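Hi team, as promised in this morning's meeting, here are the two structures we talked about. I've kept the exact order from the run log so nobody has to guess. The first one is mostly here for context; it's the second one we should focus on when we meet again. Sequence first, then the predicted structure tokens.
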Amino acid sequence: MPLLVNGARVDLNRPTGDLVRAHPHLEEKAKLLRSQPAQIVEPKGLLYVQQREFAVTTPKDGSVSILGSDDATTCHIVVLRHTGSGATCLTHCDGSDTEAEVSLIMSSVKSFSNSSACGRLEVHLVGGFNDDRQLSQKLTNQLLRAFDLQPEDVHLVTFCVTELNDREEQDIHFPIIYGIAE
């Protein structure tokens, strides 16, 4: 099944800029996310996810209430949530084996979700910037394609990546958001 935005299949044969122009609410949501002030997360209940790691939790977990990661420059932080069960996975992707990683997080979230539970799979992508080597753009495209190849519908809800997460100072590009906690 496809990767969807507002119930419509994402056309991955077009540049990601076209995706944003076709769905302006994605840009508005990215703008809103970028405008939020950084917050310090206390360690109680926090499970920190490093690069090439992922973690899954549910609302019933008595130990973990927050998943978080940071230090993402060209990397992307991906949050996948089943809206019915509340099962949530956070991963810090660096492009090393994106397709396998997406398959793994999909199966992990599904394993924590009751197959008969109502709800849908929603994905939130954050990270990267307009780097000179275009590593961020490559990872953005890999993630979109990997989610589009999954057998279940996946709804793209947050898209604050690459050009939507870029700031420039003295002709040097930097990411705006380096980390998130969910």
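And here is the second protein, the one for discussion:
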Amino acid sequence: MTQSVVVQVGQCGNQIGCRFWDLALREHAAVNKKGIYDEALSSFFRNVDTRNGGDGADIHKGKIFSLKARALLIDMEEGVVNEILQGPLRDVFDSKQLITDVSGSGNNWAVGHKLYGYRYREHIVEKLRRTAEHCDCLQCFFIIHSMGGGTGSGLGTFVLNVLEDEFPEVYRFVTSVYPSGEDDVITSPYNSVLAMKELNEHADCVLPIENESLFSIVSKIHQMTSSGKLGSTVKQNSLLTSSAGSIKTEQEKPFDAMNNIVANLLLNLTSSARFEGSLNMDLNEISMNLVPFPRLHYLVSSLTPLYTLADVNVPSRRLDQMFSDAFSKDHQLIQADPKHSLYLACALLVRGNVQVSDLRRNIERLKPSLHFVSWNQEGWKTGLCSVPPVGHSHSLLALANNTCVKPTFTELKDRFMKLYKKKAHLHHYLHVDGMEQSCFSEAISSLSDLIEEYNQLDATKSAPRTYPSRLKIAM
């Protein structure tokens, strides 16, 4: 069994990471009734014998002693990390796997990347190596960060560069939370575009998430459950948005529901690495099958169902609806409509009691309404994991390499240019050692090139669809 390490950077990254570890423990507790440290747990947790004090030795088999997350927590403000260390998850994190400062990055990418990046590089490398040494077969690093602030965007992308330098053979999956147009950080367009250049060059896969989409999904769920429109088959608290029943006991914060959705995305993405299934999908298969060109590695994600079903025996009609929902714009985690854009490839990761025949039937049903590039008409990758999320009978995560991500990047470019044309706020960045104005011009050029690559693909969409003739076998 392979192992993965989660690197959570900045306030947003650490808050989402905290929700991920909480929900992951709940999932494993629901399956692992005997308290035995198994391969499923080893994928993201170490089993440490801390009875004699000190660091404790790793126990690879048998009874669970003390589970430690394979994680590195980084933030240049202590608040969120201290909150985690004083909360119910404090024993899950190794105190030696933390890097914090007190002053923060001041919503400035240059401070996070150029100042703190170089100041803490040796510490970051040392702690990453220490984490990697506890793995038998390290397969993937998951970076969780936001794009709009200073630490998440700046130091988060610095860590990405370090991972490529130090662990070039290990996959780098990045979950990036993009700010909305009404973001309260005025410099977020600068931070996001500067970070995008690093994501373009150093990530294997990026899962872009938009705050606006998360807020919209949470609002819809609350509206539907409170109005009673969903009827008696739906419980009032969605496990996707509510912390009810979790080990978290304090008052929920406004962003908790949104963070839960991203945490569930990561749970479903990693389910095949953690649990058995009839058609397991390895993490490296996602990159191999969904990324035909190095820079076009942005995967649009959608989750369904978005609420908790009370009944366990799900009729096929509702199962079919789950597949249809995964392709509707209301379920996308960015503001996008993939059905009206061009697919390069698509992966479906299904959890629960779903048959391969159900999967194939729904793909055949949906295919005529989806536009795939002419050279990859059969660009589907599927995975089946037998263990459903807690409280659900089944779930589906769709990952689409689709040109519908382009408007998000175009809007970001427009917001960047409004500031950059006036040279507004540039002096805050240029006073940081190592930061030059060329960093801005190179970043916007990188983003423009990326948008143009999507434009060229979209231009092929209007061409008539031709299906290659099948090989005929003479009888």
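Starting points for discussion:
Confidence is low (pLDDT under 50) at residues 231-238, 244-249, 308-315.
Residues 109-133 form the longest helix (25 residues).
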